[in-house]
Amino acid sequence: MARPSTAQMLEQLRTIKTCREGVLRHRARRIEADMRECRQQSDTRKAEQAELRAQWRAANQTEQAVGPRDFHKLKQRFADFYQREQQLQSALRKLADQLADCQAQAARLAQALKQNLRGQEKLAALIEEQR
C-alpha cells in the first residue's frame, strides 16, 4: 500500500480541523441557546418574585384584627410567603450558577475555535507552499 504524500496528509489534517470547527460551532450555538433559556427562566422567576413581594407587602400593610384561631391562619399565610420567597431565591441562585457555567464553557469553546482556525490557516499556508 502506497504511503500518502505530504500534500495528502496536510489535506486530511485540514479536513479534520474543518470538521472539528463545525463541531465547536455547533457546541457554541447549543451553549448560547442554554444561556438564553437560563436568562429567560431567570426573568420569569424575577417577575414571580416581584409579584410575590407585592402580595406580601399588601398583606403586611392591611390592618389585621384576628382572634386566636385566625392568628394561626395568618401566621401560616406569612410563612407561605417566606417559604415561596426562599424557593425563588434558591432557583435564582441555581440559574445564576448555570449561567456562569455556560459562560465559562462558551469562553473555553471560543478559545478552542480560535486555536482551530489558527491551525487551519497554518495548514492552508503549508499546502500553498507545497504546490
In short:
By secondary structure, the chain is mostly helical. The chain is 91% helix and 0% strand.
The end-to-end distance, rounded to whole angstroms, is 24 Å
Major sheet characteristics: none
Amount of helix: over 70%
CATH architecture: Orthogonal Bundle
* The CATH top-level class label: Mainly Alpha
Strand segment count = 0
Question: What is the arithmetic mean of pLDDT?
Answer: 93
Q: Could you say which overall geometry the principal axes of the C-alpha atoms support?
A: rod-shaped
- By secondary-structure content and strand pairing, the structural class works out as mainly alpha
Any idea how many domains? 1
CATH topology: Helix Hairpins
H/E order of the elements? HH
With helices defined by DSSP (H or I, 4 residues minimum), what is the helix count?
Answer: 2
Low-confidence stretches: none
What's the gyration radius in Å? 29 Å
What fraction of residues sit in β-strands? Answer: under 5%
Question: Any descriptors?
Answer:
131 residues; mainly alpha; Helix Hairpins; 0% strand; rod-shaped; coiled coil
Describe the protein's architecture and organization.
The chain is mostly helical. The protein has a single domain (4-128), classed as Helix Hairpins (Orthogonal Bundle). Helices cover 91% and strands 0% of the residues. The longest helix is centred in the last third of the chain and has 63 residues, at 68-130. 3% of the residues are buried. Keywords: Coiled coil. Residues 85-130 form a coiled coil.
